[in-house]
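Structure first, sequence second, as always.
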């Protein structure tokens, strides 16, 4: 079983090294498929998340946006289409290089650390966004050193795995499954109420924090339309609580 909950500050050096090693392995071995964004359903899921980030964070020309955890640029490449002035920060040098190759000069990709603020010190932003990044980090440090760069009335928007979802729970708590999916040992997930509380305790105003999405990345292409219809129904029922992901957005007062 894997530990869950708030990630230890004391174990930070070990976590950083593990993340960098995992990133190098993914970049070198072409294991991006483990993240679920490359299948037909996965691409649809990625597009929906990107639209949520752009709309909720109100990205557009002239908006200075910081993307946390760019990875290989799956979402960086979508976010730049909004016309925002995008800075993408990534801990893994190998993944940052893949991201640069993908987006060219359309975004500034920096190697840095979202817990310590390394790579973006002294800068300020109108928006902070990310996909499946916050469950990798110590949130107190991230709020203190990175969210603090958000200007007053600045926007934030994130998508994270939902620990109330049975598959997510297994992925985050059973080592054999986690290793097969190239997850780091310290990764966890959130429940919607917990995630809202973390943001509000940090002084941020949460406008939406809700479970969403029943479309699995492994859904065969011929079944996607039917699953989306079912998803539309389920998200109007109490079953929504076990949806696969959580989306959260709001502003800094």
């Amino acid at each position: 079983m894997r530990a869950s909950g708030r990630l230890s500050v004391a174990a930070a050096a070990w976590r950083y090294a593990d993340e960098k090693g995992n990133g190098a392995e993914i970049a070198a071995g072409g294991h991006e498929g483990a993240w679920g964004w490359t299948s037909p359903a996965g691409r649809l899921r990625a597009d929906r998340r990107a639209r949520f980030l752009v709309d909720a964070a109100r990205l557009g020309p002239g908006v200075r946006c910081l993307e946390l955890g760019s990875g290989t640029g799956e979402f960086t490449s979508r976010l730049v289409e909004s016309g925002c002035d995008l800075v993408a920060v990534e801990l893994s040098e190998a993944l940052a290089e893949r991201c640069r190759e993908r987006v060219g000069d359309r975004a500034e990709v920096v190697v840095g650390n979202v817990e310590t603020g390394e790579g973006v010190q002294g800068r300020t932003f109108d928006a902070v966004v990310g996909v499946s990044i916050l469950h990798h980090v110590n949130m107190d440090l991230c709020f203190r050193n990175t969210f603090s760069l958000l200007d007053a009335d600045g926007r934030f928007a994130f998508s994270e795995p939902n620990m109330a979802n049975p598959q997510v729970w297994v992925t985050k708590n059973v080592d054999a499954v986690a290793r097969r999916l190239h997850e780091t040992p310290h990764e966890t997930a959130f429940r919607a109420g917990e995630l809202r509380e973390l943001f509000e305790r940090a002084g941020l105003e949460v406008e939406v924090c809700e479970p969403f999405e029943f479309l699995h990345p492994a859904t065969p292409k011929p079944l996607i339309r039917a699953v989306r219809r079912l998803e539309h129904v389920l998200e109007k029922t109490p079953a929504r609580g076990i949806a696969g992901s959580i989306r959260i957005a709001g502003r800094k007062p």
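Margin note: The mean pLDDT is 91.
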